[in-house]
Amino acid sequence: MSKILFQHINKFVSMEDQVLEEVISYFTHRDVEKKELLMRSGDTILHDYFVLSGCLQMYFIDKDGTEHTVQFALQGWWLADYLALQAKKPTEFFIQAVKKTAILSISATKRVELFETFPKLESYFRTVYQIAYGSYQTRMKYILSYSKEEIYFKFRDEFPEFVNSIPQYLIANYLGLSPEYISKLRRKHIS
Amino acid sequence: MSKILFQHINKFVSMEDQVLEEVISYFTHRDVEKKELLMRSGDTILHDYFVLSGCLQMYFIDKDGTEHTVQFALQGWWLADYLALQAKKPTEFFIQAVKKTAILSISATKRVELFETFPKLESYFRTVYQIAYGSYQTRMKYILSYSKEEIYFKFRDEFPEFVNSIPQYLIANYLGLSPEYISKLRRKHIS
Fold it and tell me: What is the Cα–Cα distance from A42 to A59, expressed in whole angstroms?
C-alpha cells in the first residue's frame, strides 16, 4: 500500500526505493473505520495524513452546531489543518473517515525530523502544497462565478471520482446545498 | 528594499547574507504603477511575485464581464496563479497593482533554476505555500460560517492593514458586497 506514496513522491522528485523505505518508517499506517475521527477541534498534537484508500473529510462545527465540510481527500491526497500544524496551535477543525479508509500518518514533530533527514522531501511537499494552494484559488473562482447548481454539475463532470465515492449528503454539505436539492438537480438532469 | 525578502526568508530558513545576495540576482525588481497589469488571462509565461511595498490584486472576469477579486498581496506576500505556474498552462486570472507597488519577480523557468541552485529555498517556499494553503482552509471556514456583514467586521478587526491600505470598493469586491453596502455598514458601526 505504501507504494501509492512512493509513486506520488516520484511524480515530483526522484528518490530510490531503498530511501523511500526509510521515509516510510517515519509514518504510521492506520486503518480507519467509517465515521472514525482522526482529529478533533481543540487538538494540539497534529498530524499530516496521506490517503492510501478510502476518503477523509475535514469539517468544522459553527456556533449554531451546524457541520460544514471544508475539504475532502481521496487516494493520493494529503490532509491536515495546515495553519495549526505550522503554528503549533490548537485546531478548530475535525477530520474523519467518510468510509473505511487506510492512511499514512505523520506527527508534526516526526515531520520536522523527516525534512531534516530527507531535504529532497521539501521539494515534494513544496509542490504538493503549491498545487493545493492553487486549487483553492481556482475553487474561489468557482464560488465567485457560478451558482451552486452550476458548481454541482461542473464538480460532477470534472471530478467524477468524488461524486462516485462520496455520499450525496456530504457532497451537498460541501457545496452548501441541501441533499433534497441535489436529488432534485439529479432528477432534473436525468429527465 | 530586497532586505524585506531576506528577512522573510530568514523567518523560516537560515541563509547567509552573501548567499541571499546571489538569490536576489535571480529576481527582477520592478516598480509598478497603480492599475498596471502584471499578468493577464491567457498569459503562458508566468511569474511568482513578492511584494516589497504597495499591494497586488488577483482577479478574474466572469462570463458576464464582471470582475471578481480572488486575493490580495501586501508587503511580504507572494502572489501567482499557482496551478498554472505548476502545470505550465495559460492562466485565467489577472494580477494588477492596487497602488504604486514595488515587487520582486521571478519567471517559472528561473524559479526552477533557483530551486536547483539553492535547495534550502524549497523549505522556505514549502512553508510559505503551506501557510497560504492553510489560510484558504480558514477562509473557507469564514465563508461557510459567517454572513457577509460579519465577515466584513471580522476582516476589519483581524486584518486592519488590509482595510487601511486597500480602497473600499476593492474590499467590497473581495467580500462580494457592493461599495454602498460597505459604506452603510461603516456608518452603522460608527453611529
Answer: 13
